[in-house]
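Action item from last week, closing it out:
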Amino acid sequence: MVTLGDVARRAGVSAASASRVLNHPMKVSPEVRDRVTRAMTELDYVRDGAARALASRHSLTIGHVVPTLGIGIFAAGVEALQRRLEEFGYQLLVAASDYDQAKEARQVRALIERGVDGIALVGHRHAPEVYEMLRSRKLPYVNSYQFEGQNPHPCIGFDNRTGAFNLTRYLVDLGHREFGIVTAPPGLNDRIAARLKGILDCLDDRGVASSARHILEVPQTILAGRGATRALLAAHPELTTLCCTTDTLAVGALCECHELGIRVPEHVSVTGFSDLEIVSQLDPPLSTVRIPIDQIGTRIADFLLDRIAGKTGPKKIELEASVVIRGSTGPVRVVARSRRSRRAI
């Protein structure tokens, strides 16, 4: 059986340095980590995880509970987090809660029982027992994807409300005054609620009448986005823009407009939120709000690793969600409303 001493000799480092690479990788230079890791690979060295965890009191694993892996933005965030953790010899355990707080609480408990060294959560809405479990075990944790300066919990994220506000303001500045809003239920999570609030706050700020805004709450799927678009345009042919609180819903809106023969953006402007990879390749490409997903994943890793190592730092880290303007939005134009209405019906 290959021993750690064999690895150290192959890497040309001391046994203590090789041990630090395994147990305290943040305290070792990247060069030494690379040499030891390469030697482990060459010798096919397999660490005894149970013995290592018992000796160091660290499992070198981080837990991450996300709402779903069916939405590209969370999958991309998991990849960014995992890449960063692997640089320091850590592994990632991922669970998907399906937007169910009770299920999330069970998953957090399971991750704690498996000895993770820290946990990343999404958003700030969690069952009280989740925070109690984390506090009682003094386990490092951080919320993500939603920045809330007044919230007592550590977080790394961006202001969803401001992102939606800024994109809506752009539409109002183009002359739009008749708004259709397609959203997932705001009760689903705090990010959706903040985006919907941002849209409505902007319309209030710019004096757009309540009677000129029409909201449909639907499941967060492309098919639901299509159905909501058809219903809104049939009931309100005067609409000149469709604001969607997710890119998924916006993709559905674009598909349905194409099916109905409604030109985007000549007849209707369409916006989303997230900047999924596919939306820049649509016809027309989607105007949206870009979530800084790589930064979120990297910052989560750095935050938790610092806390595990006993380092202090900012408890809250705010990132910027930027407005991305593409071909799905344009100024208001005179359209044949009656003809468009008949097509939509």
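Closing note: The chain has three domains: 4-55, 59-158+293-319, 174-287+325-344.
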